[in-house]
Design brief:
The protein is of the alpha+beta class and about 230 residues long. The protein folds into two domains: about 80 residues; about 110 residues, Cytidine Deaminase, domain 2 (3-Layer(aba) Sandwich), CATH 3.40.140. The chain is about 35% helix and about 15% strand. The chain is built from seven helices and five strands, in the order αααααββαβαββ. The chain has a five-stranded mixed β-sheet, with helices on both faces. α2 packs across α3 and α6 packs across α7. The termini are far apart.
Length: about 230
Amino acid sequence: MALQRISEIPREERPSYKIEQHPQAMSSRELLALLIGGENQMEIAGELYKSCDGNLRKLGKEYTPEDIEGIGKVTSDRILAAIQLGQRLSVPSENEKIVINSPEDAADLVQYEMSALTQEELRVILLNTRNHVIKVITIYKGSLNSSQVRVGELFRPAIRLNAAAIIVVHNHPSGSFSPSPDDCSITKAIVKAGKLLDIQVLDHLIIGGNSFVSLNRRGLGFEEGEGL
């Protein structure tokens, strides 16, 4: 059944009203509807949201808004620009001090971008003694397994920038965030090397779609009491 036309929806439930009164409570579909505009904005937004399986980061990469009936080039460009702007806002500026106190904090820092990647990447979040982020560095791109990853490469930036701790993050383009045997093997080797180098390994996160898993929290490759 078709969704209501925007003029049939009570004023306080329309995206144009919510963005002024309760922006943080808006769903992704409502935000898309506001970008699309027009009488059928909710229905069209629903179709667009469904087309990318609810992962808006795929828009412009695997899916194009123009593929949906009712979305022209101008509107498509506006949607893609909003997504790009959101991605840039999620990356801290060089002068902004980001503090990592939990796996959620670390995931928030990189998940928006990494969940949209079409190939695996392994990144290291470098932290100082107060858990302030020094830098996020990409170490590997492409398919990862325990034989390909050289543990020393992960610590080279940490040594160069005098980091006190690191958090390792990699993504699964399939959308699954379940740790593989290789993920656990790599984690054990990284934690062991960190102890030898006196650089604390706080966690290893796996990003999959809109979710993530903390290997430390699951006790995979870490001993109790280690990490965040």
